[in-house]
């Protein structure tokens, strides 16, 4: 349902509006637990119960924890991060492609 990190990386590589991409991804991720059940009913004709609490927990684990970890790494090793920063978008693209 919600867009993922890949769309933000591709937006960055295409020199698009990354702030807009992250904003849209954030809003769709936050709304997914509320919108998925009625949208499934509308499109598939069957209500799909979603455990909103579990979904929010998964969102926190997959979105919030990596962001916090990135901020901590940036604070702890800022000089080292600056050296590898130019390669990170391309490394992210390769990692996303490998996962897919």
Automatic annotation (TrEMBL):
GO-annotated cellular components: membrane
InterPro entries: BilAc:Na_symport/Acr3, Bilac:Na_transpt, Na+/solute_symporter_sf
Transmembrane stretches, start-end: 18-39, 59-77
Presence of the UniProt keyword Membrane in the record: yes
Top-rank taxon: Bacteria
Membrane topology: Multi-pass membrane protein
Pfam family, one: SBF
Major subcellular site: membrane
Subcellular location: Membrane
Entry keyword set: Membrane, Transmembrane, Transmembrane helix
UniProt keyword ATP-binding present: no
Descriptive protein name: Bile acid:sodium symporter family protein
Organism taxonomic ancestry: Bacteria, Bacillati, Actinomycetota, Actinomycetes, Kitasatosporales
